């Protein structure tokens, strides 16, 4: 009897379509990486291989300050967002059914569904009121804004990890008269640690790459690396931007690779 199992790979032309899609997706990125090693000053004319623009970016004081500010904001926002996301995941997965659970899911994931520009304008108005009232214009606004949209990105892998965990160990600890805190410290927390780390890394990458909300919320002199690059592109296109973008891409790929390894299914 003929095998009638449907497989996408057997469709005619599927391989060519897949290859074309990958080329369209990754050709601009490959071009960016290649031209970051261009020896010339033109972004479109290849003049040989050189690390000239990496050295220029490394010695640029403005780039150094923006990079340090980006890392500080991303680390603080990812830390705050991950703690809040962990508490939210525990509250929505380790309790019995209760009215309004779907509403809570929706509210936590709201930043993923609302256009980023809307969130940016809302944060701009909210923080502007606080700035007028307090006179404070420091980096805390940027960290708070990034932490707000990092929560759902950290929440999703942590919640998935909790839902995939076997409850028998926690029930066994309760049967042996362990306190809820002891059960959480010695059983729940170690088992959910990979989800927490993965959520923190994902939140860090999202914060590190953000432009729209940062551009609306930041005060003068608080450029992060993405907003600094956007400012440079408005003045003149320099191959130095290619080198910075490639370094940022390498860091992002490294963190996302670690994220996928932590979230891979284990037998």
Automatic annotation (TrEMBL):
SUPFAM superfamilies per record: MetI-like
Top-level taxon in the UniProt lineage: Bacteria
Keywords: Cell inner membrane, Cell membrane, Membrane, Transmembrane, Transmembrane helix, Transport
GO cellular component labels: plasma membrane
Gene3D superfamilies: MetI-like (1.10.3720.10)
PANTHER family with a match to the protein in the record: PUTRESCINE TRANSPORT SYSTEM PERMEASE PROTEIN POTI, SPERMIDINE_PUTRESCINE TRANSPORT SYSTEM PERMEASE PROTEIN POTC
Protein name: Spermidine/putrescine transport system permease protein PotC
């Amino acid at each position: 009897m003929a095998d009638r199992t449907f497989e996408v790979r057997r469709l005619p032309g599927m391989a060519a379509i897949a290859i074309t899609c990958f080329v369209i997706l990754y050709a601009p990125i490959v071009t960016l990486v290649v031209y970051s090693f261009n020896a010339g000053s033109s972004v479109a004319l290849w003049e040989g291989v050189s690390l000239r623009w990496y050295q220029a970016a490394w010695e640029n004081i403005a780039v150094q300050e923006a990079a340090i500010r980006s890392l500080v904001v991303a680390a603080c926002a990812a830390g705050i967002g991950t703690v809040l996301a962990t508490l939210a995941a525990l509250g929505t997965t380790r309790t019995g059914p209760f009215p309004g659970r779907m509403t809570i899911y929706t509210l936590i994931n709201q930043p993923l569904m609302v256009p980023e520009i809307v969130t940016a304008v809302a944060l701009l108005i909210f923080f502007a009121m606080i700035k007028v009232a307090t006179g404070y214009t420091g980096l805390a606004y940027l960290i708070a804004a990034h932490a707000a949209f990092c929560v759902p990105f950290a929440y999703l892998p942590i919640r998935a990890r909790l839902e995939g965990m076997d409850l028998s160990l926690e029930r066994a600890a309760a049967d042996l008269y362990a306190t809820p805190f002891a059960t959480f410290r010695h059983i729940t927390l170690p088992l959910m640690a990979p989800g927490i780390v993965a959520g923190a890394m994902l939140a860090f990458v999202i914060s590190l790459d953000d432009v729209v909300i940062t551009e609306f919320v930041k005060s003068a002199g608080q450029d992060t690396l993405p907003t600094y690059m956007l400012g440079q592109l408005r003045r003149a296109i320099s191959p130095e931007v290619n080198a910075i973008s490639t370094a940022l891409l390498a860091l992002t790929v490294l963190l996302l690779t670690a994220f996928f390894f932590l979230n891979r299914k284990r037998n």
